[in-house]
């Protein structure tokens, strides 16, 4: 059965590991170092900028041979892009104000470039259905881990103290507004999956799995404070 749920089921073993990622668990139990969280938020701001651009590109395929996108879907994709910029990036910008930093003063790190490059290349060069599939984990995995983290927060109760910024992040991705967006995007992917030929669906599956891997690696990067090698950093831009 070709469906969005079948894509999720294919990646379920990896997602089960990701929901227990030490970075995410530490955010809930309050042991996450603020330097790692700041690193993550800065890199995520870079990611969201390109993610919103990808959503807009998919919306512009309306009427193009690459897409069976309806006008309603095109408008919805634009709304998703606005949501990434106004809701998610606004959360990040609020953190930057509190920290008195500008994320543009920090370059995108290796896994950020890896993920965004893969995502943007897929959206730009592959069919519409594949573009939807490569973006789906950013919606669905975030909602899933957000709800897992919310449950862990409830289980821990008042036994731990954590930064209010960690709570704000959890509330965003475990919240009803984000869930509505995710549900709408899943429905769009589901239609594309059901209408795809077998070769296209196989590619959708490959992209979904790869993005799930890259989501996990994105949190690895923040936990380890990954940097560019010194030799590469010394080269001119």
From TrEMBL:
Residues 9-222 form the Thiaminase-2/PQQC domain. One of its GO terms (biological process) is thiamine metabolic process. Coiled coil: none annotated. It comes from the Eukaryota. One of its GO terms (cellular component) is cytosol. InterPro entries: Haem_Oase-like_multi-hlx (IPR016084), Thiaminase-2/PQQC (IPR004305), Thiamine_Salvage_TenA (IPR050967). This is Thiaminase-2/PQQC domain-containing protein. It comes from Attheya septentrionalis.
């Amino acid at each position: 059965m070709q469906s969005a749920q079948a894509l999720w089921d294919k990646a379920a073993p990896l997602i089960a590991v990701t929901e227990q990622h030490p970075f995410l668990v530490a955010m809930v139990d309050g042991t996450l170092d603020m330097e790692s969280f700041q690193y993550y938020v800065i890199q995520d701001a870079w990611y969201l900028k390109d993610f919103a651009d990808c959503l807009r590109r998919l919306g512009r395929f309306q009427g193009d041979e690459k897409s069976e996108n309806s006008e309603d879907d095109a408008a919805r994709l634009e709304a998703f892009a606005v949501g990434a910029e106004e809701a998610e990036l606004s959360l990040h910008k609020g953190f930057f104000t509190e920290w008195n930093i500008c994320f543009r003063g920090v370059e995108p790190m290796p896994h950020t470039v890896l993920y965004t490059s893969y995502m943007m290349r897929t959206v730009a060069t592959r069919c519409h259905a594949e573009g939807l599939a490569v973006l789906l984990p950013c919606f669905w995995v975030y909602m899933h881990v957000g709800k897992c983290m919310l449950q862990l927060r409830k289980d821990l109760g008042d036994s731990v103290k954590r930064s209010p910024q960690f709570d704000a992040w959890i509330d965003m991705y475990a919240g009803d507004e984000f869930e509505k967006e995710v549900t709408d995007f899943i429905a769009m992917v589901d239609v594309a999956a059901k209408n795809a030929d077998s070769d296209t669906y196989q590619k959708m599956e490959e992209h979904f799995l790869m993005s799930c891997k890259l989501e996990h690696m994105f949190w690895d990067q923040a936990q380890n404070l990954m940097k560019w090698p010194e030799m590469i950093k010394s080269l001119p831009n």
